[in-house]
Design a protein that fits this description.
mainly alpha
Length: 96
């Protein structure tokens, strides 16, 4: 008898929580700035990124997920979202 293989669900590149039913793809460098590489994120994480930072900021300083997580406004969001379920949804406020 073969052992069943259990694979862990993919994780959000921003918050590190398992992804839920809805997944969006974030361009690490925005397409408008020539980016092509994408990473999976929760919809709420994706909306928070774009409500907080401009495409120029993302392209210039925050294309690396670790740098993005270290941004003070994103870090505050990550502390808040850490214990929420994968498909959690809430309105996102623009910070810029």
């Amino acid at each position: 008898m073969l052992a069943e293989r259990h694979t862990a669900p993919p994780l959000c590149v921003l918050c590190g929580r398992p992804l839920g039913a809805r997944v969006e793809w974030h361009h690490l460098v925005p397409r408008s700035e020539g980016g092509r590489i994408t990473a999976p994120v929760h919809p709420i994480c994706h909306r928070t990124i774009h409500a907080t930072l401009t495409n120029a900021e993302l392209a210039r300083d925050l294309a690396d997920p670790a740098a993005l997580r270290a941004h003070p406004d994103i870090a505050r969001f990550l502390r808040w979202i850490a214990d929420k379920p994968a498909d959690f949804h809430a309105p996102v406020r623009r910070v810029r």
